[in-house]
Structure formats: structure tokens, C-alpha cells
Amino acid sequence: MQEETSSDVQNVDELMQRITEVFDTLPRQLKSVATYIEQHRSNVMMDRTSDIAAACGVHPSAVVRFAQRFGFSGFSDLQAVFKQAYTGQSGSPQSYQQRIRKLIDEKAGNVSGVSVAREFIAASRTGLDELAAGLDDEQFEAAVKMLQQAENIYVIGVRRSFAVASYIVYALQHTKKRVHLVSGFGGMYREQIRSVRKGDVVIAISFAPYGKETQYCVRAAQHHGAKTLVITDSQLSPLARHASAHLFVKEGSAFAFRSLTSTICLCQALFIALAYRLELTVEESKETGGYDD
């Protein structure tokens, strides 16, 4: 396969777009490197080749090959793109993880509950800051419009994402939309999603390693002509690449536990924006003589 000749990459977003376009064709080891880089963008400028290789379970030469695959002479050239983008920024997820690990090492057995709480709150705050900075205005507006026009809204989220799916169903039921939680109770994901059709929207909430049940529901929706709104953590997510609209959120984590703060916040914002849009539509209809006109 011919290599990319993309040494003219100007910024991180352009690089990630090119990675996304060819991700499915990359060898397994290079896919691991791509996923790491996408998930740890703000840390790549500080990472050594050996650090990334160890995190991905590959040989350091694979990291170099990855850079060369996209037209760079070596990893340092690729790293320069991230340095340009992230120099001067602070509070990356990794820096919090390092602080937490240092806290554990220094105070093994003596960490108070309050210390744990404050670290977790700080990590959640970092996640919210990243959500605000990275929110895609165009995709968010597209998501609101899709939900506004939907005949039925199906929501799927498993395991950690189930709490978020349940919440957004609760919120959306305050509108006049027909809303369905694909709970999978009794293992009946297939039965609960099979009535989806054109004109409907499926909201799929999933984070690495991406629930197989959620992936099935997204495929079913697409097969039946329904639109899909994916809330996930990476543009390399198997759910995001074929979604009608996607919203990315990366949670802060502390003590190996990821927060749900940013995801809940995003879903609340989505609901409020939709409710506002629906109310405006009702008011406009009243002003023009009501629903019978």
C-alpha cells in the first residue's frame, strides 16, 4: 500500500482527520498507536517513543513506522505538530494521573477520604474544561436538529454508559417526543431495536472498549435508514465513523475511575438545547394561527 505523503500536515486536527480516513486499513500495531495518540493528544508532545510503545504493547519501531506512514521522517517530526498545538496548556489528564499516583506513593495507606474526593473533583473539572474547549458547534447543532425532527428516539448505553442513557431518556420524556430506552433486559436488545425505522434517531453512548450491544444497535439503525447520534470518546471509535452526528467527550479520571460528569453535562446541554428549540417551534406556530394552519 502506498504511504501517505502528508508531511505538509499543519495541525493536529488535520492529522487526526487523515488518520481517521485510513484507520481501518492500518495494521494492528499501527492502529494501537493511532488510538493512543488520539486518546492522549495533549501528552504526545512529552512522550518518548518508548513510552508510547510500552503503552501500546508494540516495539518502538512501530511508533516510528506510524509517523512515517503519514509522511513524517520520524516520530519527532510528528511530535512537533502536537508541541505547536499544546505548548503552554496545562491540566492534562495524564498530569492528574501522575499527581494521584504520586499521592498514593507518598501517602500509602494514609490517604484520607477528603483527599480522594478532591482529586476526583479536580479530575472531573479538567474533563469539563476539555469538553468546553473541544465542543464541535456544527455537530452539536446537527444533533439538536436531528432530535427535533425525529419521530421516535431510541437510546442505548451499556454498563458504565447505562446510567447516562437512563438519564437522557428521563430528560427527553419531558418533551412530547416518543422516547425508548433500549435496556436489553432479558437480553432483548435485538427485539427492542427492531422496530426502528427511517425518520427515527438512535442515540448511542459508548466508550472504549465500546459495547458490542451498542454497536449492534447502531448497525441496525443504519440498516433500517434511521439516523444515529453517537456520544463517544474518540473519532476512531467504530461507532463514530459512520454516525449521522457525533459528539466527543473525554472524562477526567482519578484512582483508575473515570468520571461521568462531562458526559452527563453534555447530555443535559443537548436536552436543554432541544427543549428550547421545540418551545420556539410551538411559539412560532401559535403566532401564525395555531397547529391547524
From TrEMBL:
It holds the Pfam family HTH_6. GO terms for molecular function: carbohydrate derivative binding; DNA binding; DNA-binding transcription factor activity. CDD domains: SIS_RpiR. The keyword Iron does not apply. Residues 13-89 form the HTH rpiR-type domain. Keywords: DNA-binding, Glycolysis, Transcription, Transcription regulation. Residues 143-288 form the SIS domain. PANTHER family: GLUCOKINASE, TRANSCRIPTIONAL REGULATOR. This is RpiR family transcriptional regulator. It comes from Caballeronia glathei.
